[in-house]
Amino acid sequence: MQTEKKTTAGTQDMRALLDVLPKERNTDPTGQRLAKFITSISDKRVPTSSFSRIWTLGSLQAKVTLGYLAYWLHSRFADTDEKERLKSEAHLAAALKLLGTMGYLRGAVMKVGQMLANLPEVVPEEFAEVLSALHFEAPPMHFAMVREVFLDEFGREPEEVFASFDQQAFAAASLGQVHRARLHTGEEVAVKIQYPGIARTIKADLRNLRFLLQPLCLTKDWQDTLAKLADIERMLLMETDYAQEAMFGKLARSAFTAADRVVVPQIYDEYSTGRVLTSEYLHGCHINDFLATDPGQGERDHFTHLLTVATYRLYYRLHWLPADPHPGNFIFMADGRLGLIDFGCTLTLSDEEWLFSNVAIQAALDRDMPSLNRAIARACRFDNPDDMEPDHLEVIRNGFYWFMEPWQQEGVFDFGDRDFFLRGIDNAIEATRKGYTRSLPMTIWSNRFTFGGRAFCYKLKGRCEFRKIFLQESSCARQDPA
């Protein structure tokens, strides 16, 4: 009976993922090959050695390259419409290969897939559609591995720890998956379980990345690159510490009242460990399901307002940068409240970082060019602006102007403005292409925080009185520094 239950749960997981994924029309119209592939991923342990992971990525690169080569050969003899169809199918085939490999490797590799999916207008539509499944619908691990984690953490199986435990994961992402359960006292909870060995995969991926970037060791920015990689590793490993995430969750919950309409789920410490996190279950849906209801502009603006309030509350009251604002971390609740989950990737700014951040913001608000240039130079790790090439200073300053636009505009700001969103993306691409990437470690967190949040609001096509919210939250924080 127990085996039958596990098989049923696994089948339901697979069907749920298959439902949201497009199929390759010519080679797999019914999704049978895709179903077998997803099942094989769920049954495998995550590879943790550096060699196995880099070998898998190398194989993926070869497969994707061959797929696009085949498209190029076929498209040479096709008309315009046929070329578009072939290109779309090539993108879809490549995206499904990426999904499969990232779903197998998980960890840092899957985080890259999530970030790509969260950048509309940047990657092909087929990539964004497929890779968006990595936010909360990735292939889940087999239930036998869930039992293994529970036995290691609690010395008991999940059915013994909880009054009831759903073997089917309702969400699965880069570092863990989430199951619904019920406590013996009756509360409905969400139980996040970390994939076995996931911290080792992150360390292996960063070792591989350092190895691949070794040819840059003689460049002037090599030490800056190493510092960034160390901070990325710290950022990702932080997400594997569920005990710390529980602490962040409790602090975030205390920052909001019922009147704020922002909900952070309650944490249940007695059912949580370093690799298992149990919290209140929030009823609602993620952004794709919300948008599928064709919400009016008023609803879109309402949730954009709540998200902005929540962001500023955490920044000004707790001095936080929540650096993982992807779609899976926001719950649209039927009663109009916004649920915030997952605080694993959160930077608490040091006093020095907090002061520097606000000096730069104030310089931009005051249109104090000399002070702003000095802040930019420091952010780029130069002693003063004169040490920077004029173009370098201008490109980074333009990016900061883009960042500050919503802060400076009176009235309603439209985050659904395509021109605004693409100007920010284009600036980031220009800075990267020109090698203007030298910066303080905290900029990795702030960039992920900014681009992730704005990509989410762009997809939502939401508007809000951004400047008004900023002034209210910053003023309240000054009056009540506790």
Q: Could you characterize what this model shows?
A:
The protein has 19 helices and 11 strands. With about 475 residues, the chain is an alpha+beta fold. Mean pLDDT is about 80; it is low at about 1-15. A hairpin with a 3-residue loop joins strand 1 (about 165-170) and strand 2. The chain is globular, with a radius of gyration of 23 Å. The chain has a 4-stranded antiparallel sheet with strand order 1-2-3-5. The chain has a 3-stranded mixed sheet with strand order 4-8-7, with helices on one face. Strands 6-9 form a two-stranded antiparallel ribbon. Among the domains are: about 1-135, no CATH class; about 285-480, no CATH class. About 60% of the residues lie in helices and about 10% in strands.
Secondary-structure blueprint:
Layout: H1 2-20, H2 32-43, H3 50-75, H4 80-105, H5 107-117, H6 125-131, H7 143-154, H8 158-161, E1 164-172, E2 176-182, E3 188-194, H9 198-212, H10 222-238, H11 242-254, E4 262-263, E5 276-280, H12 287-292, H13 297-318, E6 320-322, E7 330-332, E8 338-340, E9 346-348, H14 351-365, H15 369-379, H16 390-408, E10 413-414, H17 418-433, H18 442-460, E11 463-464, H19 466-479
Parallel strand pairs: 4-8
Antiparallel strand pairs: 1-2, 2-3, 3-5, 6-9, 7-8, 10-11
Helix pairs in contact: 1-2, 3-4, 3-9, 4-5, 4-6, 5-6, 9-10, 13-19, 14-15, 16-17, 17-18
Query: Helicity range of the residues?
Result: 55-70%
The total beta strand count reads 11
How is the biggest beta sheet arranged?
4 strands, antiparallel
Taken from the alpha-carbon principal axes, the silhouette is: globular
Order of helices and strands: HHHHHHHHEEEHHHEEHHEEEEHHHEHHEH
The end-to-end span amounts to: 54 Å
Strand content: 5-15%
The strand line-up of the biggest sheet is 1-2-3-5
Class from helix and strand fractions: alpha+beta
Query: How large, in whole angstroms, is the Cα Rg?
Result: 23 Å
How large is the count of helical segments?
19
Q: What's the pLDDT, averaged over the residues?
A: 79
List segments where confidence is low: pLDDT < 50 over at least 5 consecutive residues: 1-14
